[in-house]
Amino acid sequence: MAWRRELLEKDLRTCYVAVDERTGAPCYMQWLMSSDQNWQIQTIGAFPKLKPDEALLENAYTPASHRGLGIMPAAMALIAAKAADFGARYVITFVHRDNVPSLKGCEKAGFSTYCIPRRSDAFFGVIRRLRFEATLAEAI
Ligand SMILES: CC(C)(COP(=O)(O)OP(=O)(O)OC[C@H]1O[C@@H](n2cnc3c(N)ncnc32)[C@H](O)[C@@H]1OP(=O)(O)O)[C@@H](O)C(=O)NCCC(=O)NCCS
Fold first, then answer.
1. When comparing pLDDT for 128 and 111, which is higher?
2. Which end of the chain is more exposed for a tag (fewer CB within 10 A), N or C?
3. Closest ligand 1 atom to 64 CA
């Protein structure tokens, strides 16, 4: 939550929020970013430089009170579709391989695995190399 709060304070575009219409409470948040935000994207994590037809979807969060209701896959699919508004044809998201709820949510939203980030450090972390290894689209 602290990290997501920080992103809000950094004014990172564009955070979408789903609202529980029964109570008015926010029940999901996630950022959709375009290639014109590449400079800012590089400051928030180890992400590839987006091509003009790519978008990045990151930092999904469902509050504990609303988990397991299928909000992530539904909301994520709707938010991903918004990428077409700024000309993106491909939407990328990164999930840690141990984050099973998130992997399941992504799969249900229609995402499939296409690359694995590999990071290597040299000289005690002074030099960092990040590459994105292509993989076959496969079941996650
Ligand atoms: C990952 C996350 C966004 C999933 O959101 P969600 O709206 O609960 O997604 P879903 O309802 O599709 O649930 C996904 C899976 O999590 C399971 N789950 C996780 N926590 C649960 C809980 N408290 N109650 C019930 N089910 C839960 C569900 O069973 C479901 O698996 P299933 O499809 O086999 O039933 C949410 O768990 C979360 O915010 N986690 C912390 C932040 C995080 O990891 N973000 C992702 C960064 S990549």
1. 111
2. N
3. 23
Give the residue among 82, 80, 27 at the shortest CA–CA distance from 58.
80
How many Å apart are CA 31 and CA 6, to the nearest integer?
Answer: 13
Residues near 44 by Cβ (< 8 Å), separated by ≥ 6?
Answer: 7, 10, 12, 58
- Residue 100 Cα to ligand 1 midpoint, Å, equals 8
Q: Give, using CA atoms, the residue closest to atom 31 of ligand 1.
A: 101
Query: Which residue out of 102, 106, 108 has the highest number of ligand 1 atoms within 8 Å of its CB and is therefore the one to mutate?
Result: 102
Return the higher-pLDDT residue of 64 and 11: 64
pTM, rounded to two decimals: 0.89
In the chain, pLDDT over 90 holds for what percent of residues?
A: 70
Q: Which atom of ligand 1 is nearest to the CA of 63?
A: 39
* Whether the predicted pLDDT of 139 surpasses 50: no
Domain 2-113 fold = Aminopeptidase (3.40.630)
Three-class DSSP category at 128? strand
* Residue extents of the structural domains in the chain: 2-113
Tell me the two tokens of residue 65.
């009170």
